[in-house]
Specification:
The protein is built from 4 helices and no strands. The chain has about 100 residues and is mainly alpha-helical. Helix 2 crosses helix 3 and helix 3 runs antiparallel to helix 4.
């Protein structure tokens, strides 16, 4: 039970922390000196370059989706939730794949 709680905390902390950094700080800062799409692209590429959980193509998809969710809602809860679901879903699929082979 403790391992599961630690995993849940890790996923939530990683999702919240990355969204605060990349959408709350980087995206908003880039918007001050670039167009909306340039800011989304810049924050997404930075996110994909250093996000530790998924490979870069998946991180680009997650980054664009998170940026668009943030732009649409102006709230970090939506992209944080999407991030946590993406991480959890990807981990579940990977675990299933490993167990089946």
């Amino acid at each position: 039970p403790l391992c599961v709680l630690e995993l849940i905390f890790f996923v939530i902390a990683l999702a919240l922390g990355s969204e605060v950094l990349f959408r709350g700080i980087v995206l908003r800062t880039l918007e001050g000196c670039a167009s909306r799409w340039a800011a989304i692209l810049g924050s997404t590429l930075l996110f994909a370059a250093i996000y530790p959980v998924v490979d870069p193509p998946a991180a680009i998809i997650l980054g664009v989706a998170s940026a668009m969710l943030y732009k649409r809602t102006r709230n970090l809860l939506a992209p944080s939730t999407a991030n946590a679901i993406f991480i959890t879903g990807g981990a579940a699929i990977r675990l299933y794949h490993v167990m089946m082979h």
